[in-house]
Amino acid sequence: MSEKALYTPAEAAELLGVNKRTIYRMIAAGEFPRLVDVRRRGSQRSRTRIRREDLQRHIDRATRSVA
After folding, report:
1. 45-50: long-range pairs with CB below 8 Å, 24+
2. Which residues contact 51 (CB under 8 A, 6 or more apart)?
3. Do residues 50 and 36 make contact, with C-beta atoms less than 8 angstroms apart?
4. Residue 43 belongs to some domain of the structure
5. Which is nearest to 22 in space by CA: 35, 34, 33, 9?
6. What gap in Å lies between CA 33 and CA 65, rounded to an integer?
7. pLDDT block averages, 10 residues each, the chain of length 67
8. What is the pTM for the complete model shown?
């Protein structure tokens, strides 16, 4: 995994080999870390991201349960 601190849901989906909608479904089901809102100061537009640590923890859990 690259050294980015935050990933978009689309980037996380690509890393996991799933569709972006799957990421949102997993979040809604409590199977994936919550999104972080990183909107810029004064902006009304939401910019959601996933922390690298949360994504890595999810990957570690998923690979342990398969192994």
Report:
1. 48/8, 48/9, 49/6, 49/7, 49/8, 50/6, 50/7, 50/8, 50/9, 50/12, 50/23
2. 5, 6, 33, 36
3. yes
4. yes
5. 9
6. 17
7. 86 94 94 85 81 92 74
8. 0.77
Q: What is the CATH number of the domain that holds 62?
A: 1.10.1660.10
pLDDT at 8: 93
Q: How many CA atoms lie within 13 A of 51 on its CB side?
A: 7
Residue 1 lies in a domain: no
Domain of 51 in residue numbering reads as: 6-66
Question: What does the block give as tokens for 4?
Answer: 């980015």
Element counts in the chain: helices (H) and strands (E): 3, 3
Would you say residue 30 lies in a domain?
Answer: yes
